[in-house]
Design a protein that fits this description.
2 copies of one chain form a homodimer.
Chain A (H helix, E strand, L loop, with lengths): L4 E8 L5 E6 L2 E6 L10 E3 L4 E4 L1 E6 L19 H15 L3 H14 L2 E9 L7 H12 L5 E7 L10 H11 L3 E5 L8 H15 L2 E6 L3 H17 L6 E5 L8 H13 L3 E3 L11 H6 L4 E2 L17 H12 L4 H19 L14 E4 L4 H7 L5 E4 L2 E5 L4
Helix pairs in contact in A: 2-3, 4-5, 5-6, 6-7, 9-10, 9-11, 10-11
């Protein structure tokens, strides 16, 4: 059986050590001292912690410079500056999106990611080229990681006539979700952009994941407008807002009113714990029973020189930026990089229990908190019961 | 000659590739294709960037849990909670300060640090035990790194009679600097603590490095009181304030007035770019021509589970928290972890030029910015012309 595997001596979620038997790509049994059936590969876990495969649920695979020579960051400070700078650079560089996406997927998988949601630029310049590149890679890396594609109008929707048709073509072509971006700041027409996006979501029966960098009261209004459309179309549980800086900027009472609405409509919130901006309180979101997820966001691209596509490093940044020091807080950060992401992107059979899909990562360490703090090398990454990357045991 | 060395094919500060000849522990010549003299060891730099040894100028070597089993963080959120929790834990754990300090020094050296300033706890419970432990280690690791000791009254000065005598004993015993901590918040007697500290500094002719977590107007007042004493005693260039969160909290005009005073008195500012607190604007401090330095601060101790004693990671956090994305900004963050630290702790002959002490670190990468972003493994660390740690070339 190509998807059978016996993993010896691992500690699921940092608990007691067990052997884990994988049959047909799923966890079949967790017990002590299981015999290896003939022909079934055996991994020596060496007492490492076993986590479910990490979930990087906000990437931009298509436009990374990963694997290219170092490129000094050249954009101005605003979102609009970065969009404009990126369009210029993209023309100059002409990096093949499929090659770049595959490089970054391989980097992410090496760090234990087995599930990705990526936003893919679609605009009237690039048209569907990046989308088609990522589609191609999605097939090519199917045995390494699953990839969900968001058709993402990076340069706006209303200001660039023709964009809606391109987004529609991407949805027909296999994008699972429709994206959006700052309908006020970028499009100067919040209702227009949101109506266009939600109309597509309704017609094609797809989810929505909107970039919202808008701050304070402006962002809060956009959150409300997103919520109204989610409710009107009965899209509960199928909408996400990425970044939502505004939730970390408005006063607590106003924020809590918004969180009640988000909870009711099961709208998920993505934060990557930005370094120098306000961002939503992770603890408060979780207390309000809202799905919180995270991702690498841009990795070494026109937007930022930073990023390693390592979701343990992201969990560290989530914790560091949130002041989480207790084991409880550190585990919460890790939970966002695992179960939070799985919930947000709708993975079924996710986890380290019997019956779950055998997408797993082994990391040496004592506790979940230590993994977030120390971010050790991943000793083994398993996808659908197959070892896709393995380091020598420490 | 035990301190002679030929380093082939390295790029000082990411410039062009050269060979670097070290004689008697100093950089003697930087040229192309130098012949290796008989008996002189040769290092193949493989085109790595050569930096001066990193400067970790704010550590707490004596109280790290480094190398111990994982210990869940148990302190409350305030500085007072943490001090109290630490005193309790210290009694329970009884970790030998010398052993712990040496573990952390060795970790830091492996990451390229060759110069350390450490604050060492002195209070009426622990008395001089931690200080003596670090003194012992300072001798033992002399060939790995230099260590400056700050006699640090972690639990306050005025509230614990007898502390001043202990601090004085530490200064007699070899501490280079006298420390202090939140004279308002901890001692409830700002003038009293500062007078006691500066009196010791004056009597013994030593520098001052004060922990200041006090926020907003309170912290700003303490900065002014520190400045007044610096001026009165003619201690220009010999005083540092660590953390100085208040400089990131008060309004710009008030801050700029304080910076003018700090500049005039050559008072240096240490920031470690905390994750969830305001901190001084690094860019603004540098524009005001103030020496900025940094350090690991607590590494896996009663104060925080975080930390790796890696000053490239610290430079990353300085840049990430400051929104530095350009090469210029990334290089500034690295400069704080190198030349900024060297200036603050008064190193002479620091750098990668002919005549400088051969405390050097080799890191593979294209540019200084890439080192801060990617924090690659250090391939070679050189102390006084001797290789103290080397990885195989990549």
């Amino acid at each position: 059986m190509p998807n059978d595997l016996l993993i010896r001596n691992v500690r699921p979620m940092a608990g007691a050590a067990f052997d884990v038997l994988v049959a047909n790509g799923r966890i079949a049994k967790i017990a002590h001292n299981m015999p290896a059936a003939p022909g079934v590969p055996v991994v020596d876990g060496a007492g490492a912690i076993m986590l479910p495969g990490l979930v990087d649920a906000h990437m931009h695979l298509d436009k990374t410079f990963w694997g290219e020579p170092w490129r000094p960051h050249s954009a101005g400070p605003t979102v609009a500056d970065r969009i404009e700078n990126e369009r210029t650079l993209r023309r100059e560089l002409s990096l093949p999106p499929a090659r770049q996406a595959e490089r970054l997927v391989r980097q992410a998988v090496g760090r234990g990611t087995t599930h990705i949601r990526t936003h893919v630029d679609i605009d009237t310049d690039v048209k569907l080229a990046n989308f088609e590149g990522v589609l191609e890679v999605r097939e090519r890396v199917r045995d390494l990681a699953s990839i969900q594609i968001v058709a993402f109008p990076q340069s706006g929707v209303m200001t660039r006539p023709g964009t809606v048709d391109l987004l529609e073509a991407a949805l027909r072509g296999g994008a699972e979700l429709i994206g959006g971006i700052d309908p006020g700041l970028i499009d100067r027409d919040p209702a227009g952009q949101l109506d266009a996006i939600f109309r597509l979501a309704e017609r094609f029966g797809r989810g929505v994941d909107i970039h919202l960098h808008e701050g304070g009261d402006l962002g809060a209004l956009t959150v409300r407008m997103i919520a109204e459309r989610t409710r009107a179309l009965g899209m509960e549980g199928r909408v996400a807002i990425s970044h939502a800086f505004c939730l970390g900027m408005i006063d607590d009472a106003e924020r809590d009113r918004l969180l009640t609405t988000l909870r009711e409509l099961r709208i998920a919130i993505m934060t990557n714990a930005p370094g120098d901006r306000a961002f939503p309180s992770i603890r408060r979101l979780r207390e309000a029973d809202i799905t919180v997820f995270s991702g690498s966001d841009g990795v070494r691209d026109a937007w930022t020189p930073f990023g390693t596509a390592d979701m343990l490093e992201r969990a560290f940044l989530l914790a560091y930026r949130s002041g989480f020091r207790t084991d409880d807080g550190l585990a919460l950060a890790l939970d966002i990089a695992t179960r939070g992401g799985a919930a947000a992107i709708g993975l079924e059979g996710y986890g380290v229990e019997v019956g779950c899909a055998a997408n797993l990562v082994l990391v040496p360490g004592e506790t979940l908190g230590e993994l977030v703090v120390a971010r050790p090398a991943r000793t083994c990454v398993i996808r659908d019961g197959r070892v896709v990357t393995a380091l020598p045991a420490p």
